[in-house]
Amino acid sequence: MPTTSHKTEPYPSELLARLRTCRHLLVLTGAGVSQESGIPTFRDALNGLWGRFDPAQLATQEAFDADPALVWGWYEWRRSQVLLCEPNPAHWAIAALADRVPRLTLVTQNVDGLHQRAGSPSVLELHGSLHRPYCRDCGHPHVPADRPCDVALEGASLPPPRCERCRGPIRPGVVWFGEALPRDVWDAAETAARDCDLVLVVGTSALVYPAAELPLTALARGAVVVQINPDRTDLDDLATFRLRGTAAQVLPELVRQAWPEAGFG
Ligand code: BV8
Ligand code: ZN
Q: To bridge 239 with a disulfide, which of 82, 92, 227, 264 should be the other Cys (CB 3.0-4.6 Å)?
């Protein structure tokens, strides 16, 4: 099946027809969907977070237990960055899709909350959220300030707040490596992967499991899988269609071409 560059218009008519007539659309997003909002991805060679920071020292329970201030400071810096960013046309196009297909399940690996801010009504956040920290010891939620933390700087340590219930340290509300994904969220995502007939995989390297299983599950059940990414990933060899371009280029154009009468954007 074809690889279509963003500049090669129009998109394949078979893909547009599939999108217009699909019964249940699954959209799986990764860091690439927020890249054009100014939020760095993880594995990008130039600016990726994991090129500059070591995930073993920041994104594991062991790291938090060893140096809570280092880890909390880093996540407050990221949360502050996100609060200064806005959703981009890719987030808006995904929100618009929910009004155009009979059923849409949006599953994200992102922890930034930008899909919700763009108006997506329901989002399955596989890896949690920067905006929902909770107590490490008793799980009690902690309500963060809804403004950027003015002392959070890249690489700066910041002692975590204490739980109002048990005085335990507050930890970021994300799923770290080696931690289980939230059971109900994962079950809903997997059920959607089994049921959907079309999947848009947007801006993910598809390297982190179990999230990367979702398109494979859908493929095995006969769904059409569309890969939207400026670069190659391992999923390219399996995807039914590949749209080469950035999320903010491709997604609005895809909505416009599939529903020209609705005049999106
Ligand atoms: C689990 C939250 C079991 C925190 C993240 C070997 C050793 C150790 C572990 C493992 C192993 N093999 C497998 C594992 C398991 C591990 C895993 O998969 N590791 C990988 C790396 C090998 N998984 C886990 O540990 C998971 N848990 O398995 O639990 C269990 C079961 C029961 C009980 C206990 C335990 C938990 C994984 C969650 C990790 N948390 N993040 C935080 O944010 O700090 S992961 C991290 O990667 C990110 O947060 C993100 O969510 C995730 C996925 O990354 P992507 O979103 O894909 O981003 P990436 O940078 O990679 O790619 C960006 C893409 O965008 C690129 O393709 C690029 O081309 C494209 N792009 C760039 N610009 C654009 C664009 N696309 C479109 N438009 C653009 N403009
Ligand atoms: Zn507590």
A: 227
